[in-house]
Amino acid sequence: MTTTIGHNVDLPERAYRIRRHALRMGEVQGQGYIAQALDIADVLATAYFHAMEYRPEDPHWEGRDRFLLSNGHYAIALYAALIEAGIIPEDELETYGGDGSRLPMSGMAAYTPGMEMSGGSLGLGLSIGVGMALGLKRKGSKNRVYTLFSDGELDEGSVWEAIMSAAHHKLDNLIGIIDVNNQQADGPSTEMLGFEPLVPKLEAFGWFTQRIDGNDIEAVRAAFDAAKQHPDPQPRMIVCDTRMGCGVPFLEAREKSHFIRVEEHEWQLALDALDAGRTA
Amino acid sequence: MTDTTARAPEKVRLKTSAMIASIAAEGQATKPAPFGHALVELAKSRPEIVGMTADLGKYTDLHVFKEAFPDRCYQMGMAEQLLFGAAAGLAHEGFMPFATTYAVFASRRAYDFIHQTIAEENLDVKIAAALPGLTSGYGPSHQAAEDLALFRAMPNMTVVDPCDALETEQVVPAMAEHRGPVYMRLLRGKVPLVLDEYGYRFELGKAKMIRDGADVLVISSGLLTMRALEVAKALEADKVAVGVLHVPTIKPLDTATILKEAGRTGRMVVVAENHTVIGGLGEAVAGVLLREGVAPKFRHIGLPDEFLAAGALPTLHDRYGISAEAMSGSIKGWL
Lengths: 280, 335
Fold this sequence. Notes:
Distance between the termini of chain B: 44 Å
Shape of chain B: globular
Low-confidence stretches of chain B: none
Oligomer: heterodimer
Structural class of chain A: alpha/beta
Strand order of the largest sheet of chain A: 1-2-3-5-4
Shape of chain A: globular
CATH topology of the largest domain in chain B: Rossmann fold
Strand content of chain B: 15-25%
Mean pLDDT of chain B: 95
Low-confidence stretches of chain A: 1-6
């Protein structure tokens, strides 16, 4: 495969390639948060190939839209998107998680071009996003801050501090994306600490809120467009219900867990299944 | 017969466990809000500076900055995790936030946020944290006895503990000059003015001899340097010559000056700090001396490893051994 892809490539193809890069990184280490990477690939494809402005050759370009990965363990997915976007060379995925690699298992800003924050300690991203959005407004920039975080992070009080703050400061340049795969470390997210009903809750907190099937890429595209075009001075949230392992049926069917085990021989089977789904 | 009739005391000293209490002695020269005024002065030529607080602007002297630059000051609400995460975000965008709260909340509540969003990325966020050590009589909720230990342990963090109003004014521009995060223990309100009479000048990372003395060397920071200077004057009457080495930068520590002064033979070394005896200046200095094989007679004045009481500050400073009288007594006892 090559990273120099024309702009005529459609979003489903981008999502397929992001899933493929992620599976190859998983194969390198024999582990990784691959089920999460597969569930969020459609969102990342839409962010990087439809919604956001950036320059692959200059990841720190001032005119870029910012993308914050709060859930640092999703780094494998973001690396895949950054590879697809041409910010990281594709052959670097062979180093994933290795000593000295720019692609550590948990995302950190100092390691990776295009990684805007050090995540991993969950619940940080939206607070940073509030500060960045305030900073962009102060500079008169029209750019936006996208912050991806997971449903489990809704357990953290700091996330709700940031949710209140973004509405208070009318941060219409802040777009939050929640990955609701209903799985966190100890079990289903809704059973760990209930956060539903999420949409009325977020609306009551002052956010323009949409809830979509995060693996329906047309719905994701429409939601990003609506979030960008919404006229009112308020922050925007896209709640994405996703399926862990999406794109690889036998992983999707596997018993849900925060860290889905993939046997050594299964990585190739997963790639084959993904490829089969692409041509189906 | 003994007269048991209750009598009003001739003069009632105000006893209070109020949150905010002045550390200035009666009649001592003070300056109002030195941090706030110094920040305003600096911000005139540094447009990237913004102020941020978590519902404690009035009590961290940031209100002075807000009055001067209302559109450069962010009220984040009583949300310290958000305060520091958002400060990191503003620093990412090229601004230099001066974020204020109380030391207890910066150190204990928001530690992971400062660690991960600010220090790990070496961002230019400057933290000014009021009520450091035992400068509130309100009880453990507001007594930051362990803040130095926590921030010393954080990589990339520079830690400063100024002594008085003069030094606070000089620390503010030095914080801005330094690339990376800085934690400053903030003395707020009417802050004593002490170091002007010694011709002192703050330099980040430098320990300085404020006065010399052949018998005892007090190594101190912050409020306890002010106390040490009182002790030195008081002990002159007892023919005890006390030198005072002021170490306002707790990290990085000026080990060369500490080794040079502590290595002078014949002087007892007393480290004095407004902080728990665990993990602060005392243990830092002891570690330096031990590693370098410098072994003077060594004593340590600091707060005990316990939850401190509520009460009037003078009472508490006496009880925990950090008033000038208590320090003088300890030092004379050790000679």
